[in-house]
Write a structure and sequence with these properties.
The chain is an all-alpha fold. Helix content is 82%, strand content 0%.
């Protein structure tokens, strides 16, 4: 379980928590929007991979007859949250950043996309922090 906790913490620290661009930065930082989109896609892929790893841990719990208890429920919540974040919300951030990059000649559209991406990312950050907090509380019960 320590390895799983480390993976989750690493994912949260890995950069899931920042959008490097703000709407006011569109004109001078237009080339950076594409870089931000690529970085966010890498984070999305890592988060999806982490959800798969949590799924594998869940399978091991069930295989070993440990299919009840708070820890199992916490892992299921973790898997579901990470899966939803990577498949939906993080994808939306990537799509918004890509659209902003493609719309950089149309500054109002690019700004709108960047503001939306930043708002969506703040929601992702909040969910990741809540997930990490829940997991840490669960782990403290066993220490």
């Amino acid at each position: 379980m320590k390895k799983l906790q480390s993976m989750i913490l690493a994912a949260a620290i890995a950069g899931v928590v920042t959008v490097p661009l703000r709407a006011q930065d569109v004109a001078p930082a237009a080339p950076t929007i594409g870089d931000a989109s690529s970085q966010q896609e890498q984070i999305r892929v890592r988060t999806s991979s982490l959800a798969s790893q949590v799924e594998a841990v869940l399978d091991e719990f069930i295989t070993n007859g440990l299919s009840t208890g708070d820890e199992l429920q916490t892992l299921k919540q973790m898997r579901d949250t990470l899966g939803t974040l990577s498949a939906q919300q993080m994808k939306e951030v990537v799509d918004l950043l890509r659209h902003a990059d493609q719309s950089k000649d149309d500054t109002p559209v690019a700004k709108t996309d960047l503001v939306s991406a930043e708002t969506e990312q703040k929601q992702i950050i909040t969910k990741l922090r809540m997930l990490l907090g829940d997991f840490q509380r669960q782990q403290s019960r066993y220490e």
